[in-house]
Design goal:
Number of strands: 8
CATH architecture of the domain at 1-14 and 24-152: 3-Layer(aba) Sandwich
Structural class: alpha/beta
CATH topology of the domain at 1-14 and 24-152: Rossmann fold
CATH superfamily of the domain at 1-14 and 24-152: Isochorismatase-like
Mean pLDDT: 96
Strand order of the largest sheet: 5-2-1-6-7-8
Shape: globular
Distance between the termini: 19 Å
Low-confidence stretches: 1-5
Helix content: 10-25%
Number of helices: 4
Radius of gyration: 16 Å
Length: 214
């Protein structure tokens, strides 16, 4: 893990990308990440110093194909093969318009200049802020950032080993300079997924910051 002196959150070419800080991923939610709400304070600290702030929001319809409840004889965290590859099945979560899909009440969401809703297509899940899980269907975020001449991203949120990591890896593959603020993230860590994704991000040249930039 590397540390740099200044994440430059106030720079015009840099955006803070806040990933899925929603009630269902926080304690008491339907797919709670352990201590997930701990990320809110550090993220708010970064929002206060950032010029550009973008967020993602999981936004599933009822009966989404990634829900275990949509597959007879399957349980949450089982894996199945979908047309786009292996899909982990999840408890029903972040259903459109529900309290679980809303941002955490203490998150400074009024600062978000753009919200990317993902996972709203019935037949495909979406972890990344840039692509759905087929790695082809775009969310539109890349075009938005390039139109604003943003080429550096600082990521935080939930969960480190899924939506944060997938977003960071896709951003790096698209040519952005990417940093992930680990103290402002929390992981699911399903069967070693956290260690695997930390390694993948490091190998992709993503900065893994061990402090919260001002």
């Amino acid at each position: 893990m590397r540390k740099q002196n200044d994440a430059n959150l106030g720079a015009s070419n840099t955006a803070l990308l806040v990933i899925d800080v929603q009630n269902d991923f926080c304690p008491g939610g339907h797919l709670a990440v352990e201590a997930g709400d701990i990320v809110v304070g550090p993220i708010n600290q970064m929002i206060a110093g950032a010029q550009n702030v973008v967020a993602t929001q999981d936004w599933h319809p009822h009966g989404h194909s990634s829900f275990a409840s949509s597959h007879p004889d399957k349980a949450p965290f089982d894996a199945i093969e979908m047309p786009y590859g292996t899909q982990t099945l999840w408890p029903d979560h972040c259903i459109q318009g529900t309290k679980g899909a809303a941002f955490h009440k203490s998150l400074q969401a009024d600062a978000f200049q753009m919200i990317v809703r993902k996972g709203f297509r019935q037949a495909i899940d979406s972890y990344s802020a840039f692509f759905e899980n087929d790695h082809k269907t775009i969310t539109g975020l890349d075009g938005y950032l390039r139109n604003r001449q943003i080429d550096r991203l600082v990521l935080a949120g939930l969960a480190t080993d899924y939506c944060v990591a997938f977003s960071a890896l896709d951003a790096a593959s698209l040519g952005y300079k990417v940093a992930v603020v680990l103290p402002a993230c929390r992981a699911i860590d399903l069967e070693g997924s956290l260690a695997a994704q930390i390694t993948a991000m490091g190998n992709a040249g993503i900065e893994l910051l061990e402090y919260v930039p001002n």
